[in-house]
Amino acid sequence: MRRTLCAAITLVASLAGVLVPAAPAQAAGVLSGKIVGIDPGHNGRNYTSPSFMSKQIWNGREWEDCDTTGTQTNGGYAEHAFNWAVANYLAQKLRAAGATVVWTRSSDTGIGPCVDQRARLLNHDHANISIDIHADGGPSGGRGFAVLLPVADGPNDRVIKASVRFGGYLRSRMIGMAGMPVSTYDGTNGLAYRKDLAGLNLTTEPKVLIECGNMRNSTDAKLLTSKTWQLKAAAAMASAITKMLVG
Ligand SMILES: [Zn+2]
User: Fold this and answer.
1) pLDDT tens digits, residue range 1-54?
2) What range defines the domain where residue 55 resides?
3) Helix axes 227-246, 160-176, angle to 10 degrees
4) 211 is catalytic
5) Is residue 22 in some structural domain?
6) In a domain, 20, yes or no
7) How many domains is the chain built from?
8) Would strands 56-58 and 63-65 be described as parallel, antiparallel, or unpaired?
9) Pairing mode of beta strands 100-103, 146-150
10) Which of 64, 79, 205, 211 is catalytic?
């Protein structure tokens, strides 16, 4: 009997250990009524259509290619798959906090859309804030993340200040929550102003693009290919977005 009781107590204790979740980064409902745009960079079958990828689009300042295939680790883990995984983890966290999530693509097995269309989709869906998720293919000796920030060019004029603030929050959380160092080769102290990206030039809601790390660096690649780290990166993004939307 005693033994059974002990076993029962042990079971309850172990169940409690399993079932009681860690305190969520975002309280349930805190993002109710908020719309968050997520743009997972590239797409899984972009490589199958070079002609579509080279289609010229207006990025707000100049003509450029529709998109690229993205990069990959030396081990062959593709950037589009990384972007898609982190985007889904981020969406789960945002939805758990009550947000509506709008997307630029609905799977990781398609082609496109082009980068200008991605910006328009999130604008059209009235996102309160958006994030473009990428990982870089930099020099193999370079490490770290960079948050790319918009420069005023007309369509995005009213969201520059908020985007820069968002970038600062994201930068501090990528260091503190995800443990990724700032880039050793891109931008200054983890931040880079960019005039050449449709996603930032054409946005009408606060937005940044994050290069989460360097897929061509072996130390970064270990993190970028790890689900545990991907969840940390998503948590860092969710925290920065929540800070922007509700303080
Ligand atoms: Zn990319």
Assistant:
1) 434 333 333 333 333 344 444 445 567 799 999 999 999 999 999 999 999 999
2) 27-246
3) 140
4) yes
5) no
6) no
7) 1
8) antiparallel
9) unpaired
10) 211
pLDDT tens-place string over residues 90-101: 999 999 999 999
Angle, helices 227-246 vs 79-96, to 10°: value is 50
Output the pLDDT for position 26: 60
Residues having C-beta closer than 5 Å to ion ligand 1: 41, 70, 134
Cα-to-centroid distance, 135 and ligand 1 (Å): 6
3-state secondary structure the chain: CHHHHHHHHHHHHHHHHHHCCCCCCCCCCCCCCCEEEEEECCCCCHHHCHHHHCCEEECCCCEEECCCCCCECCCCCEHHHHHHHHHHHHHHHHHHCCCEEEECCCCCCCCCCCHHHHHHHHHHCCCCEEEEEEEECCCCCCCCEEEEEECCCCCCHHHHHHHHHHHHHHHHHHHHCCCCCECCCCCECCEEEECCCHHHHCCCCCEEEEEEEECCCHHHHHHHCCHHHHHHHHHHHHHHHHHHHHC
Nearest one of 69, 113, 90 to 174, comparing CA atoms: 90
How far away, in angstroms, is 110 Cα from ligand 1 center?
Answer: 16
User: Which CATH number is 222's domain given?
Assistant: 3.40.630.40
Residue 200's closest CA among 121, 132, 104? 132
